[in-house]
User: What shape does this take?
Amino acid sequence: MSTTTEARPGERREQAELARKCFYYMALMREVEDRIERKLYRQGKIVGGVYVGRGQEAISVGSALVAEEGDVLCPSHRDMGAFLIRGVPAWRILAQYMGRVDGLTRGRDGNMHMGDLKLNIIAIISALAATVPVAAGAALALRYQGKKNVALSYFGEGSTSLGHWHEGLNFASVQKLPVVFLCNNNQYAYSTPAEAQMACANVADRGPAYNMPAEIVDGNDALAVYEATRRAAAHARGGNGPYLLECKTFRMTGHSAHDAAHYVPQHLWDEWGKQDPIERLEARMLAEEWSAAEEIEAERARVRREVDEAVERAERSPLPDASTLLEGVYENQ
Amino acid sequence: MPTTYLEAIREGLWEEMERDPGVFLLGEDIGVYGGAFKVTAGFYEHFGEKRVVDTPISEAAIVGAAIGASLMGLRPVAEMQFADFITCAFDQIVNFAAKCRYRWGAAVPIVVRAPSGGGVHGGPFHSQNPEMWFVRTPGLKVVAPATAYDAKGLMKAAIRDNDPVIFFEHKGLYRRIKENLPEGDYAVPIGKARIAREGRDLSIVTYGAMVWTALEAAERLAEEGASVEVVDLRTLLPLDRETICASVRKTSKVLLLHEDTRTGGMAGELAASITESVFEDLDGPIVRVTAPDTPVPYSPPLEEAFLPNAAKVIEKARWLWKY
Assistant: This one.
């Protein structure tokens, strides 16, 4: 009995610390994306597409916190949390959005279309399912090199209609590759609701066809996403093959900043508005006494300050010089 | 002992796999079976299943996985069983592989092998020459060797290259041509054409299996007194415009030849490039000999009518020579 009571405070500390980390990164992602969508885009400082993950922050944050140093992340366009956790500073993300030279693509691409191999982040392309077989190939390389690492492959439910998605899952399963497939089922792909996207009720229903374990996860509960990803990654790391997680959530925004999403019935906004992942975690932190209300408020203030500074720094980053247009198509060009 | 074009590709692959443990192969039926054309026969037994990966029928996964593995530092060589099936992997090649470096500075050192070309009664889906889909995609390199020497040397260069390379190997050449290859390691630089035959009166610019057609035509025209130069492009992207223009400056007449269909074929780009650079040196119109704008037909009389051959080249070249 005594060992149990002694272990409990340690576990509790760990849980509290994990919750605080999740809270910080979700709040940071929300704040950066709010600035992007509601300020910089409207000010004309962001000229291209804006695709935010409002309402689904728990998925990229809860999962990316599981990733170990050598693990490979293939985040999708609403997964900013994964970049922040991996060490991409907010100001460089903002610079990327504004087409500045300090964006990860130096103005060659916009929004979350970016990667950094030093951080083991692979950049998506707009045909989002294309990254799924690429993630499988990254996992193949990890095994080939004798590493005990996994690839995390992110996508939405819309991607699961494409052939590349199925080819990627099939290949990974046949080859027993260490991949965690992470679906954010936010119920809309642009204006198309999930029931017009697929005839099965859940993306997870597709797992058994590939002989792949599949779970449905509460995608608005960062700690649940963390736990599920930990299970899935342990399975993949252990050489047991890939694992499919379907995180149920809701896209609390249009497809992009120009889309008011009139096609979404009001009751869905209302219902899912009560499931906000940041507010839910805050309530849990207070209920479990992991943090005090004033600590949480201080954290929010810190995030706002950080993002103020990040915006300022990103705006100081220059636009690329047109003379660089031809550079970097090939290695020696 | 002369080496066939097919054996030259095998040697290039084999020696690179011996040299660099990061080089591996993936594709359909390439391992236990040894490949549809037996290019990789014996590789599985020697290098094992880790380095010779038999895949599902899944071109997008084959190329996608090759891209992912290359981003992690490996050097995958992906085989399309027939170049015709490369369409299934189109997005991976033109949108993923080709744009990584420009967008985010990531090298994608993959080779996609594409057995292409007609004359083998393969019909519409086992005979095509789809090189131009890739030649107009910045970020890719595209090679199409005509000789055993170049097939081996370009394979080595492609595997060592830090950009994605589409390697068109003509099926009709696999066992038809052979030559003695040098002992030891060599690579043929990507982006360099070669003069396959020297001449003064007229240049034929071509690539792949059509190099042999051009050489046959040149030989016969020589009997009539015409001195024909044959330029073998070897690499289609990036184009060696200097060698092409130098040949045109020398002969002042140019015939462009390819097995691919006409509209949007390589000849169009070559003609524009020649006109832009050496228009003043031309003493006659730029002439094209290509396949017509149809799918590749199956039945022998139709396929024969479809494919360019020496007789068609001679007729046009003779006209241009006398112009």
Observations:
- The mean pLDDT of chain B is 98.
